[in-house]
Structure formats: C-alpha cells, structure tokens
From TrEMBL:
This protein's record includes keyword Acetylation: no
Organism name: Brevundimonas diminuta
Alphabetically ordered keywords of this record: Hydrolase
Family: Belongs to the Nudix hydrolase family.
Name of the featured protein: DNA mismatch repair protein MutT
Length: 157
C-alpha cells in the first residue's frame, strides 16, 4: 500500500538527516525482536517506508537504550514489555546515515494492548523467522538470520 507519506519520504529524508546531524552529531536507534510463544517475530509496516521492519526508532535525549526499546515497542506495536529487553547486537548504520548506530534487543515476555502511535504504523503482523514476507527489509532479514539462523553477526546494519 503506497501512502502519501511513502511518496514524500524520499524528499523529506535529506532534511531530516540534515537536522539530525546538526542537532545530534551521532544518532542512536533501537530495534526490538519480540518473540511470541509460537516462535514468531513481530514486524511492522510504516506509513512512510516500504517493506516490513523490526519495530523501533530513535533514542531520545536523556533516555536509556532499554527504555527506548520498551517505549518503541509500546508505541509502534502495543507491546507492554515485562522484564528487561536483552541486548543482542550493536550495528553501525553508516551506509544509510553516517554516525548512526542501531542496537537490537530481544523481548520474550510481554502483554499486548493498543498502540499509542497513530499515523506512523500502517500494519503489524507476526511471522515465523523462516517464513518472512517477501518485502521484509534486508536489515530485518539479516538480523533475524543472525538470531535464529546462526549467521555471524554483521557489525554493519
């Protein structure tokens, strides 16, 4: 599904990156790998980007990475994390955005409720790691292959 946000995102991305670079210098993001009792992982489709992604986003000023992962899972997918997310890996995202780093956390205990983010996420769904949708992003596929398929962790996003 192509939305107006998907169509304008390529034009607004450079402005966002310029603002981020001027205001932050280095950026830090998180992604959450939520695994349900059936071994499926939660993926999200954004209203402004193509494909299926692991839920996540930027770490806010004054926020811990664990706190950001918990917040992003709640906002984007309606997951209320029980316990602490477990850090799995850290990646440099230089190819996409110089100075950006992404931390991947795993969550196995959670409750489901309503999302708090409206307008950002078009769809959420659960998938088995060996049966991902065709349009799952490369980074999503790579991270899940590292976690579930025994692939060597790649330090690059």
């Amino acid at each position: 599904m192509t939305t107006w946000r998907t169509r304008i995102e390529p034009f607004t991305r450079p402005l966002f990156f310029a603002w981020s670079r001027m205001s932050r210098g280095m950026t830090l993001g998180v992604r959450g790998v939520a695994v349900d009792a059936e071994g499926r992982v939660l993926l999200v489709k954004h209203t402004y980007l193509a494909g299926w992604w692991l839920p996540g986003g930027g770490v806010d000023k004054g926020e811990t990475t664990h706190g950001a992962a918990i917040r992003e899972l709640r906002e984007e997918a309606g997951l209320i994390v029980r316990g602490e997310p477990r850090l799995l890996s850290v990646h440099s995202n230089e190819r996409f955005f110089p100075g950006d780093h992404v931390l991947v956390f795993r969550v196995d205990a959670f409750d489901l409720t309503e999302r708090t983010s409206h307008g950002e996420i078009a769809e959420i769904a659960w998938f088995h790691p060996d049966a991902l949708p065709e349009d799952a992003t490369r980074a999503t596929r790579d991270r899940l292959a590292e976690i579930f398929g025994g692939a060597a962790p790649d330090p690059n996003w």
